[in-house]
């Protein structure tokens, strides 16, 4: 039974009681949150982007960090609180592959319509390359890579990737998930 990304009022205490995450993992993410938020009980997008910039110093992490922020801000209020941070980071770094795939799908599905378009896919892949400081000037290479991956994953040939197609694609192309690791 995997965790569903609820926008409901699940608290840290409820997460602890549900045993969705180990107490050790929750404590680790609580400590990380307090350090990165400088003791506040939330992150703004600007602060979150800055923490990514400090982590990924060899490239430009701004676009990617904004998309991660979008996915972590479950209630859409423009900030990430401790609960949202713990749930997001545990999905991103945990062992549950299905949870990782669902989380990654939400990053790639920029407009939230339930499918990944070629434009959305290119946007995130470019952001990943920029974040890691690799091949930013090689637009043709990134476009070709994205086109090949889209063709490979788009089983029904409708020009978009559904969550199920993305699941299958991630099993074939493991780097799609690995590229999102913090």
Automatic annotation (TrEMBL):
Q: Methyltransferase: is it a keyword of this entry?
A: no
Question: Would you identify the family this protein belongs to, as annotated?
Answer: Belongs to the recoverin family.
What Gene3D superfamilies does this protein's entry cite? EF-hand
Question: Matching PANTHER family, A to Z?
Answer: CALCIUM BINDING PROTEINS, NEUROCALCIN HOMOLOG
Concerning InterPro entries, the annotation shows: EF-hand-dom_pair (IPR011992), EF_Hand_1_Ca_BS (IPR018247), EF_hand_dom (IPR002048), Recoverin (IPR028846)
Pfam families (UniProt xref) = EF-hand_1, EF-hand_7
* Domain called EF-hand: residue spans: 60-95, 96-131, 141-176
SMART domains for the chain? EFh
What molecular functions are annotated in GO for this chain? calcium ion binding
What organism does the record attribute this protein to? Patella caerulea
Protein name per its UniProtKB record? EF-hand domain-containing protein
Asked if the record carries the keyword Aminoacyl-tRNA synthetase, the reply is no
What keywords sit in the KW lines?
Answer: Calcium, Lipoprotein, Metal-binding, Myristate, Repeat
